[in-house]
């Protein structure tokens, strides 16, 4: 058996109090969760901000006149109203097709009821740079429409 030196003090009986264990900071304890949150949260936040800016800024507005050729509700997850307006410049000339999106259900239903009644003039706003097709397949969003009647004096294009 090994005897200790009679003048030595055992380590448990030292005069300095033991230091408490330092707890790691919140970031060090949860670095994995914070990294995952940043990797998933920043892109979602960026696309959301981009969508809000693109949909609130109007690049151009205008009116197009023609015959509504097609209007349908499309989409797997996000349903939007997509349509085609045939704009004929002269009789016998193939029409130019203007594709558009309607975000308002009541406008789309009313236009569906008025299809086949003649020419319509659609008012639209163009929003460029919308990041997904969830808001519509085209950059042209119809805001209103009216039926164009022939007064008999003005030639119809």
Task: Compose a concise summary of this entry.
With 157 residues, this protein is of the alpha+beta class. Helix content is 25%, strand content 29%. It folds into 2 domains: 26-55; 58-147, OB fold (Dihydrolipoamide Acetyltransferase, E2P) (Beta Barrel), CATH 2.40.50.140.
Features:
157 residues, alpha+beta, OB fold (Dihydrolipoamide Acetyltransferase, E2P), 2 domains, 5-stranded mixed β-barrel, 3 helices, 5 strands, rod-shaped
What would you say this structure looks like, in words?
The protein has three helices and five strands, in the order ααβββαββ. With 157 residues, it is an alpha+beta fold. The protein folds into two domains: 30 residues; 90 residues, OB fold (Dihydrolipoamide Acetyltransferase, E2P) (Beta Barrel), CATH 2.40.50. Strands 1-2-3-5-4 form a five-stranded mixed β-barrel. β1 and β2 form a beta hairpin. The model has no long low-confidence stretch (mean pLDDT 83).
> What is the top-level CATH class of the largest domain?
Mainly Beta
Q: How many strand elements?
A: 5
CATH superfamily of the largest domain: Nucleic acid-binding proteins
The largest β sheet comes out as: 5 strands, mixed, barrel
Helical fraction = 25-40%
Total separate domains:
2
- The number of helical elements comes to 3
């Amino acid at each position: 058996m090994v005897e200790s030196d009679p003048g030595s003090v055992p380590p448990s009986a030292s005069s300095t109090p033991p230091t408490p264990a330092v707890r790691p900071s919140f970031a060090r304890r949860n670095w994995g969760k914070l990294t995952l949150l940043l990797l998933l949260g920043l892109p979602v936040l960026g696309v959301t901000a981009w969508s809000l800016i693109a949909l609130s800024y109007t690049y151009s507005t205008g009116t197009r006149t023609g015959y509504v050729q097609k209007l349908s509700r499309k989409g797997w997850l996000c349903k939007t109203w997509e349509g085609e307006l045939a704009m004929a410049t002269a009789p016998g000339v193939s029409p130019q097709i203007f594709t558009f999106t309607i975000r308002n259900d009541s406008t789309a239903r009313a236009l569906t009821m008025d299809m086949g009644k003649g020419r319509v003039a659609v008012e639209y706003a163009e929003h460029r740079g919308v990041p997904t097709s969830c808001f519509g397949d085209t950059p042209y969003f119809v805001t209103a429409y009216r039926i164009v009647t022939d007064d008999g004096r003005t030639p119809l294009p």
